[in-house]
Amino acid sequence: MALKSIIYKADLNISDMDRGYYADHSLTIARHPSETDERMMIRVLAFAIHAAERLEFGKGISDTEEPDIWLKDYTDAIQLWIEVGQPDDRRLLKACGRSEQVIAYSFASASDIWWKAMNSRLDRAKNLRVMNVPSEQSQALEKLAQRNMQLQCTIQDGQIWMSAGDASVQIDLETLKDFA
User: What is the model's pTM?
Assistant: First the structure.
């Protein structure tokens, strides 16, 4: 018998002063049985960073044809494809062919090893950005995970703060590859 996804709910308040975006999002997050709380919270972080009216979670781990998060226009063309974790180069290059922009958010202590193996293979992808969330910050973010969350994300001058109640985590993203 297949295990079912665990459903998380998050009320996410976003104050992105860099983009002038201020909104509340009620998120329903299906956490795949093989997904950790850490990875799920990186998905929430990526959603907060790129929040827009039509941004939505994809099937990600459950479906190789969909990203973790995507933004489609009204014609169903994919404007933004977001991957979380350490996807292989074939997946990222395929996404680059299907979307205007692709952003990958790596995390965990093995990110450096993964990126050294991927870097040369992804040079030609001009519409790809690869960001890294330092391991200690992603682990601190994981501690904010609860089945029902009240989250606040503040973005200013490139710095990101995610908080829940009295707990707060500062995220300093590292750019591994930027758009060409």
Answer: 0.96
Task: Report how far residue 164's alpha carbon sits from residue 114's, in angstroms, rounded to the nearest whole number.
Answer: 31
pLDDT, block means (10 residues), the chain with 180 residues: 86 98 97 94 98 93 87 97 96 97 95 95 96 97 98 97 97 96
Pull the structure tokens for residue 55.
């941004």
- Looking at residue 86, what is its pLDDT? 96
For 31, 50, 69, 85, 88, the CA distances from 56, given in Å and listed in that order, are 14, 10, 6, 18, 22
Q: Which of 35, 38, 81 is nearest to 58 (CA)?
A: 81
For tokens 């990875």, what's the residue? Answer: 39
**Are residues 13 and 153 in contact, defined by beta-carbon separation less than 8 angstroms?**
yes
What are the distances in angstroms from CA 90 to CA 64, 95, 118, 125, 161?
11, 9, 10, 11, 32
Q: Report the alpha-carbon distance of residue 52 to residue 71 in Å, rounded.
A: 8
The packing angle between helices 135-142 and 37-50, to 10°, is 100
